[in-house]
Amino acid sequence: MIKLGVLISGSGTNLQAIIDAIAAGDLDAEVVLVISSKPDALGLKRAHDAGIATIGLTREVYNNQTAADELIAEEMLGAGAQYIVMAGYMRMVTGPILNVFPDRVINIHPALLPSFPGAHGIADAYSSGVKVTGITVHFANAAYDEGPIIAEEALVIEEGESLQSLEERMHAVEHVLYPKTLQLIAEGRVAVDEDRRVRIS
Length: 201
Prior knowledge:
Elements: E1 2-8, H1 13-23, E2 29-36, H2 42-49, E3 54-56, H3 65-79, E4 83-86, H4 95-98, E5 105-109, H5 121-128, E6 132-139, E7 149-156, H6 163-186, E8 190-192, E9 198-200
Parallel strand pairs: 1-2, 1-4, 2-3, 4-5
Antiparallel strand pairs: 5-6, 6-7, 8-9
Helix pairs in contact: 1-6
């Protein structure tokens, strides 16, 4: 079993998918702490309802990003987290977290990286006219939406599909792919080679 610390900023639907996968026996993990960059994020209620410890940070805390990430790293270590899972966390993680959890900070992005990085991956792919987009799960590093890719799943954009429809289908894929990928990590099957590529055994 692996112990996860989860970072959120919003509604926490990916957090809920992880909680549900654990409850169903599909993910051999425990969420030991949820930290939100917004004190009123709905995801905090999801965590509370599941009996998970929570911390809601205020905007003022992030006036000093280094100090904020030092606080997050300290709290996650204190809770016993082995991996940090970014689940709709709308801030970069920096050295104080990455150095304490090397190749153990995981992010999910709603596009097939390296295409369409940034905060609007779904809308950017949709407006570009590409026919295929998808979901990427990767280890986070100091560059936004970079880092070794662990898993991807492609999704065809249907002819005439609305952005809302695409968003709904993308989120549905996320909610399956994220727990599935975390289970590979829980089974010890994911490693980062010297060339910074992920090897899955």
